[in-house]
């Protein structure tokens, strides 16, 4: 009887643990409905008087998987290194690129690296300390390390953008 109770207890413990793991999956990308996505794109439009920028600088959600293919578009990433937001810009133009370091902050301890991996459509921040990778933050997950990603949808000169004091993107000198 004790043996049977032990087996039943072990099975129920495994079932409860597995259920908790599935419920707390941090690697799952949040999926917006088409209506939610349209609303978020409108809410995240840049506040500028330049209609060309307003119409062609598009807020991007991870579920859109913008890095699956090379599109030769400029991307603006607002991300956090230590306690402040940074704006990094890159062109998604290299087909042979497997992984590229977009920004490396050598001044802070720990160091922060913004990387793009085209093979798996992954934009992420690595924290390193004394040359060892200590933490990994994925854009697909809802976290505090990525504030926004924008894509410039024209082939013309990309806009000159900066961050305001609150970490919001804006046109330089506006």
**How many domains, as an integer?**
1
How large is the radius of gyration? 21 Å
Query: Which structural category fits the helices and strands?
Result: alpha+beta
DSSP helical segment count: 3
Largest β sheet strand count, sense and barrel closure: 4 strands, antiparallel
Overall shape: globular
What string, H for helix and E for strand, traces the elements in order?
Answer: HHHEEEEEEEEEE
Q: How much strand?
A: 35-45%
Q: What's the total count of β strands?
A: 10
> Helicity level, as a percent range?
10-25%
Distance between the termini: 77 Å
Kindly report the spatial arrangement of strands forming the biggest sheet.
1-8-2-3
Short description:
The chain has 174 residues and is of the alpha+beta class. The protein contains 3 helices and 10 strands.
Structure, described:
This protein has 174 residues and is an alpha+beta fold. It has one domain. It contains three helices and ten strands, in the order H-H-H-E-E-E-E-E-E-E-E-E-E. It has a four-stranded antiparallel beta sheet with strand order 1-8-2-3. The radius of gyration is 21 Å and the shape is globular. Mean pLDDT is 75; it is low at 13-27.
